[in-house]
Amino acid sequence: MARQLDEQTDAVFGSGRTLRVLDVGLGRGVQALRLARAGHQVTGLESDPDLRGLVEKELADEPDEIRKRIRLVAVGSEDTGAHFLPGTFDVVLCHGELIQARDPGTTLAGLARVLDGGGLLSLLIRNDDALAMHPGRTGDWDAAQAALDFPERAGRAFRLDTFTRGLAGIGTPLRQWYGVGIFGHDRLPEQDEEAERMLALEERAARTDPYRSVAAMLHVCGVRGG
Questions:
Q1: Positive or negative, the Cα torsion across 50, 54, 57, 63?
Q2: What string of DSSP letters covers 177-211?
Q3: What is the pTM of this model?
Q4: What angle do CA 175, 181, 186 make, to 5 degrees?
C-alpha cells in the first residue's frame, strides 16, 4: 500500500511538494506517521479512543517537528463534510472505513468533496468479486461456499466496476487500481531477504491481470476534477 500510494502521489503531484493529507479511519496511524515523516501535513480521523491512544503513544516518541505535522480528530468517516470545507485537502486516504460505513455512497461523496481540484483519493475496499479466494486457499470450505453465495444474497457492493462508476459520478474518476493481498500472506517473513522477495512478488502481481482481479482487497485511486 505504501509503495502504491507513493507511486500515485509522485505521478499526480510530482516530488518535493508538501501535501495536505486527510487519513480517514487512521487506525494505528501507520500511513499518517509515514507521511508526516516525509514532510506532509496530516489530519487523522479516528472515532475509536483506544486507537487514538495508540497513535498518541507513537507520536510521543517522535521529534517535535513531526508531532506538529499530525492533527488527530475524534470523528468518523461519515463526518468529513461537517468538519472540513470543500477543497481542504490534496490527498484523502480511506483505507478500510468504507466497508464499515452505513452508507458507503454518501461517505464516498463526502470524501471527494473535501478534496481540492486535482487531488488524489486513495481507497482500500473489499473485493466482492473474489470473496471465496482466501477461505478457499486455506481449506475453509464452509466459508468459501458462504462467500460464493454472498453476492446472490446481498449484492456485490464492493466491486471495481461499481466503484469506477461511483468515482466518475462524484467527479473523481478512476486513475489506477491495484490488488492487495493476492497470495494470502498475513505477515512478512522474519528474514529481510525473504520478506523483500515476497513484497516484490506481491507488488508485481498487484498491477498484473488476471492476478490483481482475484485479490482479497483492492486499492482504488481516483483524481478529483477541476
A1: negative
A2: EEEESSS---S--SSHHHHHHHHHHHHHHTTSTTG
A3: 0.91
A4: 150
Share of the chain above pLDDT 70, in %: 93
178 grid coordinates:
491495484
The 10 Å CB-count burial string (b at 16+, else e) for 124-147 is bbbbbbbbbbbbbeeeeeeebeeb
- Structural contact between residues 182 and 206, judged by C-beta atoms closer than 8 angstroms: yes
CA distance 122 to 222: 7
CA distance to 28, 37, 40, 114, 127, per residue, from 70 (Å)? 13, 10, 9, 18, 31
pLDDT single digits (tens) 168-200: 999 999 999 999 988 866 666 777 888 888 889
Give the mean model confidence (pLDDT) for residues 117-121: 98
How many Å apart are CA 31 and CA 91, to the nearest integer? 12
User: Any idea how long the chain is?
Assistant: 226
CA-nearest of 222, 226, 225, 193 to 11 is 222
Q: How far apart are CA 90 and CA 73, in angstroms?
A: 18
Is residue 38 a contact partner of residue 59, using CB atoms and an 8 Å limit?
A: no
Range with the poorest average pLDDT among 52-56, 76-80, 81-85: 76-80
Q: What angle do CA 217, 40, 5 make, to 5 degrees?
A: 25
pLDDT at site 151: 55
Q: What CA–CA distance (Å, rounded) separates 199 from 188?
A: 8
Give the bridge partners for 90, in sequence order. none
| pLDDT (average), residues 47-73 | 94
